[in-house]
Amino acid sequence: MIIYWDKETNSKNRIGKRVKELRIQKKLSQKGLAEQLQLAGHDFNDLTILRIEQGTRFVPDYEVVAIAEFFRVSCEYLLGVSDQK
């Protein structure tokens, strides 16, 4: 498992900001996003999404992939490595 720690923001993940932006663009609540990810077979709830967005939860690499696939963006985009979706 890969754990990304953003030292600049002292966040436990690097994807929170982008997850929130993408969720809002799709007009989904945190609960709505969690439900969509559950339908795809992943174990998320609204508290999980909240903690990811706030940067208070580590996000394993397989969850980064699941979220990227749902939003149809690259993992690099979610991680802030690239601005190209």
UniProtKB/TrEMBL annotation:
One of its GO terms (molecular function) is DNA binding. InterPro entries: Cro/C1-type_HTH, Lambda_DNA-bd_dom_sf. It comes from the Bacteria. Pfam families: HTH_19. Residues 19-78 form the HTH cro/C1-type domain. This is Helix-turn-helix domain protein. The lineage of its organism: Bacteria, Bacillati, Bacillota, Clostridia, Lachnospirales.
